[in-house]
């Protein structure tokens, strides 16, 4: 008679035979326990973290080891660098090998090596950016990256930005009027909305930017896509789960929506200075126009949103720097506009020339630099697409992925003492902490891929800050309305919003909100 033992499982022969239930079953149970323990200890030994020359191979079952890389990236990097004594380490994301670099020499290679591709790194390891294969027109979208970067730089040339400046300020003012004269707000929602509005104005056309419902709809598709990079969708990209479907749907919805505005502008009788018209005017196909808009939106919204929020938070918690910033803005307005003007603030700010915004706000430049340092996300990603090379005697094969923890660099106490402290004076002559090592500050990228939006993002931040500091009084309070004693740290695992650590207190209320009162 066949029993349960008649299977091909290697542990099946250890299973108790129901007909022999009794003393023998105890023996078998013990045998199972011993085998399981042996398997756990054995696999733990085989899969343990091992040093191989100058690099550590992370142990464990690859999918399990890599899981927190997707769910808690900051903790993943800090934890493994702590365990390896700050040395380079390797792990697997499915079939891919990922090497986490550290140190000055590796950093120089990471940011400068010509074999390393930036798009592939983010496309495969991040997932939450539009994968144009999802809408099956990838070939048409394969425009060369360099051409795209050139187009983006051209879009934000000073003369174009000067023309659009009054409209940007008008948009911000309109949105801020929605906050009422005084009240409370969650900066991580409201300030993000300001940034999204500016991005739409900068990247598309008037018909879209001035239709609030359409901007909200676009923002919904954007966030659906941004958040679709779940561990399952990245680790198992072929798995037809809800994240994959959501991503495909959001990509299609974004593409269709932007496409309808490109068509609208293509059929318009008179061209305007708006971005879509500018791109159409260069003879580009609809798909290239749409991919350029998407590149601007995806490169810009999160980074600029995070920085706009945290600038206001840091200044809210640092009265000395806030007072200095207000003084600098007031001097700018006095110098460039009519001092007895009764025009509303946003109109007076619109009269300040771009060159003054760029060159006459030195303290605010320090404040922004410090803010970018503290909020820089966990890691930059690359893929070696060309030929094998070495980093610190470790072979980087063709196809390998590399990551560099920009956040770790910016929080390194050997470079930036007391790194969590908001201290814009770190950069002034005499201290110059950001020059202690090569590329010690990478908040705007470095080497082969510096941020193509640095100038426009800095201007956006300065505009929001000017309207908030000159137009409002605000303070930071907790959910029960009490002034905050100290500013919580940014949650660097939260790649989308970088909200505060422990954002909600035990009673579910936000730990941090703004109480604001409009004064101008
Ligand atoms: C405060 C806001 C911003 C910050 C802190 C920021 C930061 C960065 C950083 C650190 C990189 C380098 C990433 C890497 O090396 O892997 C980068 C690249 C880039 N950024 Fe920004 N960025 C901001 C806003 C923007 C905006 C508004 C745009 C769009 C106009 C933009 C466009 C780009 C592009 C296109 C690249 C890639 C450049 C290349 O591939 O060569 N960024 N940014």
TrEMBL record:
SUPFAM superfamilies: Cytochrome P450 (SSF48264). Belongs to the cytochrome P450 family. The keyword Transmembrane applies. Keywords: Heme, Iron, Membrane, Metal-binding, Transmembrane, Transmembrane helix. This is Cytochrome P450. Heme binds at residue 451. The chain crosses the membrane at residues 27-47. It comes from Hebeloma cylindrosporum. Its cofactor is heme. InterPro entries: CYP450_sterol_14alpha_dmase, Cyt_P450, Cyt_P450_E_grp-IV, Cyt_P450_sf. GO terms for molecular function: heme binding; iron ion binding; monooxygenase activity; oxidoreductase activity, acting on paired donors, with incorporation or reduction of molecular oxygen.
